[in-house]
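Recap quiz, item 2
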Amino acid sequence: ILNVEQSPQSLHVQEGDSTNFTCSFPSSNFYALHWYRWETAKSPEALFVMTLNGDEKKKGRISATLNTKEGYSYLYIKGSQPEDSATYLCAFKPAGNNRKLIWGLGTSLAVNP
Amino acid sequence: NAGVTQTPKFRILKIGQSMTLQCTQDMNHNYMYWYRQDPGMGLKLIYYSVGAGITDKGEVPNGYNVSRSTTEDFPLRLELAAPSQTSVYFCASSQAGGKETQYFGPGTRLLVL
């Protein structure tokens, strides 16, 4: 059974703090790793799709790294703002004909002003 | 630029009733998906489609049916609503599977009493 785990489950930080969280996935049979941002009462929005070991992606104050050999990805938020409060989901796509993403349960981030 | 649209936004059903959740995308995407999201459970894939006329089961297909007669539309049918189907339902689409970003609709909140 393929499993994607995210940690921590939830996180509370102060405005201005930098933070990071982890997505762990099977290290064998890797194809792609997705990060999504999901605000309360909205729908998930894509942040990054990562495919190569050592990939680093950045969008504003948010960045992500990928280690396919050991099966993890980190998401970093620099100088957190209240508008960063959301659940951050990762999803793993294994190689092969299976067309489905395997989703983690997310890390819920609350940024206190 | 509509993207993925879903109707209705909210519905209350009685046990045993049936209904169809509508999903339409205007991005000419081949792949479409139906997810349900229950508190603390993350996104669960119900059904997906890789093109018009082709559908396949996801993780939790029981109690649901889908069809894909056009590229744009991917309706989800509940035949005999049960309280266990109380959830938030998200439709998503992507150009292809794997490396392609999934674009989500706004969700349909369903309450079965």
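The mean pLDDT of chain A is 93.
Chain A is about 0% helix and 55% strand.
End of item.
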